[in-house]
Amino acid sequence: xxxxxxxxxxxxxxxxxxxxxxxxxxxxxxxxxxxxxxxxxxxxxxxxxxxxxxxxxxxxxxxxxxxxxxxxxxxxxxxxxxxxxxxxxxxxxxxxxxxxxxxxxxxxxxxxxxxxxxxxxxxxxxxxxxxxxxxxxxxxxxxxxxxxxxxxxxxxxxxxxxxxxxxxxxxxxxxxxx
Length: 178
What we know:
Elements: E1 2-6, H1 13-24, E2 27-29, H2 31-41, H3 47-65, E3 73-77, H4 84-99, E4 103-109, H5 112-119, H6 133-142, E5 153-158, H7 164-176
Parallel strand pairs: 1-3, 1-4, 2-3, 4-5
Helix pairs in contact: 1-7, 2-3, 5-6
């Protein structure tokens, strides 16, 4: 099973993903784990940055395919499927989902006020996560659809009034019904 937690920065993907991976007794691969090598050693958004991200993802995907089939994998990402890079990234996740069915996508969201509260929290600095409240405003204003094409199962989850544990439990309960 592959479960993709897709949502804009600051909606709680990683916090939810940690708890969900524990509930599922699975593995977690969050976007920051993949990107941190690139952030540390390359210029953000440079060709070398994206090349490094791609190489780390390739290694991760190879390892995931070789995990025992009963080990679920939880991903966190933010993909809108509106750029060529995002479309390529989404295609890779679809391929991985086909190799480890079922392929599940949970769109994680929250209202703007909550998103700003979360994105500006001080703990995000240590993970090189964005903390700009304007980013939250831009993301909510744009309202680009998050990628979901070809997912076997899709859940839209607004986490505004939920704790991360409650959100993880809701996703856990959803995947148990599949």
